[in-house]
Amino acid sequence: MNHFARTIPSTPAAHTHTAWGAPPSGRYEALAQPLRPIFARIRATAVERDVQRHLPHEEIAWLREAALPRVRLPQDQGGAGASLPELFGLLIELGAADTNVVNALRAHLGFTEEILTTEAGPWGSHWRAQLAAGALVGAGLSEAGSAKVGTFATTLTRSDQGLRLNGQKFYTTGSLFADWIAVAAQDGDDTAYLQVPRHAPGVEVVDDWDGFGQALTASGTARFHDVAIEPLWVKPSSARFPYAVAFYQLVHLASLAGIGRALATDLASRVQQRDRVYSHGNAARVAEDPQILQVVGRVHGAAYAAGTLTLQAAAALQRSFEAHTDPQSDQARRLLADTEAHVEVDQSVSVITRLILDASTELFDALGASATLRTEGLDRYWRNARTIASHNPRIYRERQVGNFAVNGAPPPTIYRVGRSGS
């Protein structure tokens, strides 16, 4: 059943402008309204899950039932045909509820982009049907082993018995919740991208991620022991979709923007309700203290800017998507759109990261010592933001933007992590 067909009008719907800015499209409110009660339920138990380390299996099941993972698919395939700005608007709202859930869906959303930009053929048709049927994909690309940069220790080999996958992955975000795991493996001198059934014989996924933030994303270890692989599970080409690096990083930025929105809302509510004051404060009520209100305003401004930048960069990704799916588009238009998408995301990384990391610390300036209690959950904002921001460090993004601005050098379109070759 298409959960969006009844809620997305063919003409633009009226929408409510809020302090977070105008929505990314005229129909966005109609798209978001059915999902907001689910987002609210997810947020209601976010602190409890964080304290108790309770993985969001149920929460992700709610989103699957509401068809959020296939929102980018056309309506005749069970989706809403959402644009990338609309998708990232939803991710910001979901990130305000719980960024663990956003991160758990990141690999699936990226694989969806892979399929949407793939030319017609058996592989693309097969996986488009799988996504339309509700299949969920988790991550299995990164490794923590000794493989050199540009290679993988995980291997895809051929024998008389067929294709076999062997190896171990880390940062397998979302795989414990998924039906399939998107894996990158060494195939001779080439890289193979393939989908592996989560519950196939020889597949083991372990919840051993021990980071101080984003603890509920199931970003631990996946092991593959002589797993039988069907040829249709292997992508025919090792090329990724053209805006892949920018897309995956922008999911992180949407998470940061969501954190900003959540902590700003949380802070305002706590200041409004707070009845304990300092003798050296400026008012009889905290809610009337101008210095406290200044902190609240600064934090809200940071959240507003982070969300605005995220949606602006999402529009650049949309232009790249359209350039590659428009049959009339030429190579020059595609190259320009790809470069601009990567540069716009790179320019946003350091700004959004700084804004939200600062805001997640500054919120405590407006609250008392009781706000540091573990059970209050306010520390999770900084822990999650700091963990998210540690992926693909911002210092390299700043250098890439500078190199483009000065020398016209486009940012790289593929990243690898591994041991130095020297």
From TrEMBL:
InterPro entries the record matches: Acyl-CoA_dehydrogenase, Acyl-CoA_DH_C, Acyl-CoA_Oxase/DH_mid-dom_sf, AcylCo_DH-like_C, AcylCoA_DH/ox_N_sf, AcylCoA_DH/oxidase_NM_dom_sf
Keyword line: Monooxygenase, Oxidoreductase
Domain Acyl-CoA dehydrogenase C-terminal: 252-391
Domain of life: Bacteria
Any one biological process term the GO annotation gives: fatty acid beta-oxidation using acyl-CoA dehydrogenase
GO molecular function, one term: acyl-CoA dehydrogenase activity
Keyword Oxidoreductase found: yes
Keyword Oxidoreductase in record: yes
GO CC annotation: cytoplasm
Entry protein name: Monooxygenase
Source lineage: Bacteria, Pseudomonadati, Pseudomonadota, Betaproteobacteria, Burkholderiales
